[in-house]
User: Fold DNA processing protein from Pseudovibrio denitrificans.
Amino acid sequence: METATKSRAPHLSDTQRLAWLRLIRSENVGPRTFRELLNHFGSAQAALDALPELSRRGGKKSYRLFSKDKAEAELAALYKIGARLIALGEPAYPPLLRHIDAPPPLLAVRARDPLQQELTGTQKTLAIIGARNCSAAGAKFATQLAGELSTQGFTIISGLARGIDSAAHHAALSSGTIAAFAGGIDTVYPKENLELFSSMIATNGAAISEMPISWQPRARDFPRRNRLISGMSLGVILIEAAEKSGSLHTARYALEQNREILAVPGSPLDPRSVGANKLIQQGAALVQSVDDVLDIMEPKISMSLPLHQGIEEPTMCWPELDSPDTSSLSPPPNANEQDRQAVIDALSETPIDQDELLRFTGVSLQTLQLILLEIELAGRLERHKPNKLSMIHAGTT
Amino acid sequence: METATKSRAPHLSDTQRLAWLRLIRSENVGPRTFRELLNHFGSAQAALDALPELSRRGGKKSYRLFSKDKAEAELAALYKIGARLIALGEPAYPPLLRHIDAPPPLLAVRARDPLQQELTGTQKTLAIIGARNCSAAGAKFATQLAGELSTQGFTIISGLARGIDSAAHHAALSSGTIAAFAGGIDTVYPKENLELFSSMIATNGAAISEMPISWQPRARDFPRRNRLISGMSLGVILIEAAEKSGSLHTARYALEQNREILAVPGSPLDPRSVGANKLIQQGAALVQSVDDVLDIMEPKISMSLPLHQGIEEPTMCWPELDSPDTSSLSPPPNANEQDRQAVIDALSETPIDQDELLRFTGVSLQTLQLILLEIELAGRLERHKPNKLSMIHAGTT
Assistant:
């Protein structure tokens, strides 16, 4: 048993971490494709070796592999600012985040102690999020709630935005609070929160990011980041959010991720209350005191992982950890041209279920998955939830 | 069929109305006892004739029957100010109120047109209630909501209190709005709302009261009145209410009466929001727009009466309407002293179910009910919901 446990010792070697980084940064590889590639090729390095040929078969003339030099430079830059890359499955990886759909294979973490396992490895976490242009009452309530929940041993997660996010981080400083960044781990946004961020890092807080270092956040990076906020948290508390706000995106992720959604009500005459009030109408728990939060969350804290049935443990993401030699895995099948054409013909811009595609084309599951990877790496496949696929035609990109 | 329908023509004769008034105003007779008495004696007059002897058997030396003179004086005073007494079962009696537990047998109604059947006879009604010391935002929202619901054809019910109640009545003036009084129908409370009340009456509004004319409301009359507000309404909308407020009493009645409970949320930092927010936590519908109200209420409006299963139609309350001669009814049984003592001995200060009492004493149901009436009229019985009874001992009153 000792040996079996040890053979899955959850740390990547430096070589493996480099390969993981190159793979996730390569063209058309997202967290989901990363996982598919590891499932097929057994290790990030084997996947890297296969990438150019795969994408060529998918119809792409030249494929941009993320170079070893660039990956080494990124790692060096991270180390220089005291940040580390944590891989899915390593102890410091936020435990709840492992259970979301398509978790980032690598997270940059920045903290006073570069490993900071106690903090990012905790699962007694609550997100507090809300309006950037919050009211004074909203900020006051966020401060009260975050402070009291910290005292109760909760780690407060938020997005370092103005308004509610800042108030929550501030109030939770003493017990350590975690921010998820939409940009690179060295890119504090907004700039006015640099001082708050410094205080966070100085007081055992941390920041995480899945984006490359120095990445300047674009509008579409924020929803993507929001899935990390809810993903790291047992529950999400919403304080003031207008309709169609980013906070509501986070709440939607929380719903998908089967996390608790809690909302603080407000007057219907304040547009900043509409979002939270609507969530309550849709079934979110109404919060007007820390006791309300504790009543809802306490039964969840003692639940052992995995929190949710039906969310698969990503063990297949890291079979390589202690076996850089992949000879034990069966070699990936080589799809023939006829199968490939059948799959490409069957796909259209209308999303179709993978199971239907399987029945329609008659190819084997392993072959289908390989062909889909090829098309995806060529930038021609779009994946939709849950498990649906569509083709991106040249004219539509 | 014509005859059968006519024989239940739903109007009391003047003589009957006088007898009903004397009965409900007599000592130890409340709405529930009134109904029991009518069930036993077939008419209010027959019950009046039996009262002194019944209470004597229950152990009371002298019983105060409400005199004919006093009743005539009350009727005259009502007519003088343009008010009428409407009996349970008559067309102008608020239809939803018939279905509550222990509805008042007689309601004083005051309106521009003394009968005002269209208004008090409507069942497209909503109560809007809330804090007396409401915030400006609360009053504004009550005004908006009441105005919009009026436009949608709802009659707004409230309690003419300061704050939310006044705002709701004001905004609903044009379509007629109904106030329920805790005091007599001529006793406008608070005085500062005299002008609002005059406007209500002038614009097809109405007021109702079950209390004697000129009755000055005491603290304990307000909860009793609140059951009329919810009882007349399909649903109760709560806007701002502190904990332990009268509005929460009304909401509790609404729950017992199986009416919709709707609440407008507010900031947890405002104590006036705590009550409404708590109701939402307990399952009340969160309201932030008139559309939210319509979504909830529209399916209820078309429901035919009786709204609730298990609430018995009070037909037995008025078999006398067209048969002042009660010879067709079997004469009430005369309980013997042995049975009476058995029931008295079985009762204690601990409430007991009537069914258990029946089994324990072995007397017939009709005999038991008669004995209970006797004890009740003697002021020694307390009735608890649902259907439980206890003895009031001399030392405990």
Summary: The interface with chain A takes residues 137-138, 140-141, 264-269, 273-274, 277-278, 280-281, 285-289, 292 of chain B (CB under 8 Å).
